[in-house]
Amino acid sequence: MSSRNGKSGVYVYFCGNGEHGRELPSALAEFETKSGAHIEAVPCTGRIDPRYVLKAFESGAEAVCVLACPTGHCKTLQGNLRAARRIELAREMLAEAGLKPDAAQIFLPASPEEDTLNAAVETVARFIRHAQQEEALVS
Amino acid sequence: MPAKYHIHTRPAPPRFKPVGKYAIIDWREDCSACHNCVKRECAYSVYNDERDRLLQSVDYVDYLYECKGCLCCVQSCTKGLLSWQVNPQYLALGDEVWTADIISSTWYQSETGAIPVSGAGYPGPFRGPGFDSILTDMSEIVRPTRDGIHGREYISTQVDIGRKPMRLSFNPDGSLATDVSPVIEIPLPIIFNLMPWHELSLNVSRSIMDAANELATYAISDEPELLGHSAAVPHLTDRQPAPAGRTLIEFVDTPDVAERIARAKTAEPNLLAIVKLPLGSASIQRALQLARQGIDALHCYADWRGIVQDGGERKHITEAVRELHLAFVGEGIRDEITLIASGGISMAEHVVKTILCGADLVAVDVPLMIALECRVCMNCTEGLKCPVKFEEIDTDYAVQRIVNLMGAWHSQLLEMMGAMGIREARRLRGEVGRAMFFDDLERECFGPIFGQRKASAEVR
């Protein structure tokens, strides 16, 4: 398992300005301690750029995951949709470079009505577990 | 002419990435690649730096919040592709007194030693609570000779700690008959206080002492191993004996404090005694009594947010200091005591405003911790992990960060005093002619016309 600062090589970015207020950040902060993944708030997932994702892999990431706001609930109106397109582009570039495109993922919760917080954390948890298992297999 | 007091600042980079405020969201898919792209015009080179940093091996999210918020690019992009967001982590910093902006600006000053300049101007309200309800009268700001920082005029920030006689008397042979008490001069109207809630390692406490020494000021300390430090002002509780060889000692107020001080002065005639007393109208009589008993200085304190619980009333430190100062003036003994005020002083302007309200100098505490990258998250009070690893702080780094902060504050003191037409920090004390108290102005000017401000409309 590659690591920096004793953490695993899984990077999770989520929108810090989402409708979840401060609940998701604190839930993810707890989860960060347990899972050892890098979890970081960004001002909007529309701030994520394919270059950043590639840079993350270059800096040692094994997997990158973006947790966006539900469709229709982005404060900048289309940040989550644009992030989805950019992650798709990053996946294509990863494939061209001979890396696994599935290592970059974006999750858009279906709607804000469902239990978003738990669902989001569970989604991220599944992704991290999967990525960490793959890391272990490789090493 | 004596040599100018100068604080030697030099860049002291932070150990952790500071929490930035602004980020630009970019719909780059729709970009027309204009030849005069606004990104090239960024005055702070944020976009160029981002591009350059992508080529280096740094954490790639380090530049998410580098934007200074001037909004030039947002306003000028011909296709309106750029928008602006505030970092939610930034908004979560601090509290209503120790605001995110104060914390962020203190980090900047500690890193650079320079006066903070806002790229987007001042966006706040005209007035606010506490220190923000006092406006300084910078009526001399246009005078060309008031440039103390750049050298043609000398603006002194030196203050004295100790009793001064109200008048002098002379013997028939012309020699001085008045018994003149010892006085300590410090070149900055600031000393360092005990920390209100941080648990400091010995290393950090020593760094504060070393920084005080470099600045030629003092730091109050209750750390037994540091009481011999040349910049230390030992803080004594009611049972501790006074250490030998010290010229400045702080005593906690007890019924027998005057006797304890008299005993300590017998052993050390040059000793200056400071008594620590809470602010509030209940303490005024005690303060006057102590002054008559020959105490040299009073350290009057509010809580770390600058609030004084005065009976059932909440007062700001500025109001309480003003009341105490005026009580001494009323008794005609103001010069016989030095007033040191502490609590809630978080910016250079607060130093000036506290002195304007009647203090001789101030004691600062939490800003020193913010200089060492404290985020005022209070994790340490709950036994949680410190996000900036206070326990791993290096002494050289800590000393330079504190010196830088005081350097930036000193420059701001000079700016403010120059603009107010005051060339001596000692003359600033109680100089309310150079201050405007917004509440008083409003009551006197608008009150007769519009009546009393309703509580619900109060700016908070």
What do these coordinates show?
The complex is a heterodimer of chains A (139) and B (460). Chain A has 139 residues and is of the alpha/beta class. Chain A has one domain (16-138). Chain A has 4 helices and 6 strands, in the order βββαβαβαβα. Chain A has helices at 23-35, 50-58, 79-96, 116-138; strands at 3-4, 7-8, 10-15, 38-42, 63-67, 104-107. In chain A, the strands form 2 sheets. Chain A has a 4-stranded parallel sheet, with helices on both faces. In chain A, strands 1-2 form a two-stranded antiparallel ribbon. In chain A, helix 1 (23-35) runs parallel beside helix 4 and helix 2 crosses helix 3. Residues 1-6 of chain A have low confidence and may be disordered. By secondary structure, chain B is α/β, with parallel strands linked by helices. Chain B has a domain at 159-449: Aldolase class I (TIM Barrel). Chain B has helices spanning 46-54, 72-76, 88-91, 100-112, 202-214, 257-267, 281-292, 317-331, 348-356, 366-371, 395-420, 425-428, 438-450; strands spanning 22-26, 82-86, 134-136, 159-161, 184-186, 190-192, 219-221, 232-236, 248-252, 272-278, 297-301, 307-310, 313-316, 338-342, 361-364, 435-437. In chain B, strands 6-15-14-11-10-9-8-7 form an 8-stranded parallel sheet. In chain B, strands 1-2 form a two-stranded antiparallel ribbon. In chain B, helix 5 crosses helix 11. The longest helix of chain B has 26 residues, at 395-420. The two termini of chain B are 47 Å apart.
